[in-house]
Amino acid sequence: MAKNQTGETVQVDESLESALESVDAAEASVLGVAEAVGFPEDELHRIGMAVREAMVNAVVHGNRYSARKKVRLKVLQAPDHIVISVADEGEGFEMHTVPDPLSEENILRHSGRGLLLIQAFMDEVSVAKTEGAGTEIKMVKRLAPAG
After folding, report:
1. Could you say which of 22, 23, 28, 67 would form a disulfide bridge with 16 (CB–CB 3.0 to 4.6 Å)?
2. Parallel, antiparallel, or unpaired: how do β-strands 124-129 and 135-142 relate?
C-alpha cells in the first residue's frame, strides 16, 4: 500500500453500492484496520457506530438509495490514528444548514442525530461538499497513549 504525504497508508479504498447492505461491509472494513492499529474494544464500538451513521447518511440522505450512485469509503492508517472518509454522490449539503437535533422542535424527531453521534465518537470530524456533486465526511480517531 502507498503512503500519502502525511505518512498515512491507504488501507481501504472501496466503491460501495447505495444500499443499506453496504453499511455492514463498510463497518467490517474499517474495524479491520482499527483492530490492526490496536484500538481497544470500547473504541472499536465507537468507531463502528460512527462509520454506520456516516454510511447510512450517505446511502439514505445523500444518494437516496440510487443504484446509479456509489459511496466511496477510504481508510488511512498511521501508527497512532486512522482517518475514515465516506463520500456520497448526492446533492451535497453544508454543515451549518443541518437543524440542531437538540433544539426543542427537533428533540422528538426520528432522524437527525447521526452527525451529533459521529462528532461525539470521533476526535475530529469535517463535512464538505465535494467537487461535482456529493458530500464527504472525514473522521479521525487517535489511539490513546499507552499507560
Report:
1. 22
2. antiparallel
Could you give the CA distance from residue 107 to residue 28 in angstroms, rounded to a whole number? 31
Q: Which three cell numbers stand for residue 51?
A: 462509520
Side chain identity at residue 43, one-letter code: E
CATH of the domain at 108: 3.30.565.10
Assigned domain for 46 exists: yes
Residue in 79, 21, 82, 80 with CA at minimum distance from that of residue 52: 21
Asked if the structure places residue 2 within a domain, the reply is: no
- pLDDT tens profile 50-80: 999 999 999 999 999 999 999 999 999 999 9
Given a contact cutoff of 8 angstroms between Cβ atoms, the answer to whether 137 and 118 are in contact is yes
Global pTM value? 0.86
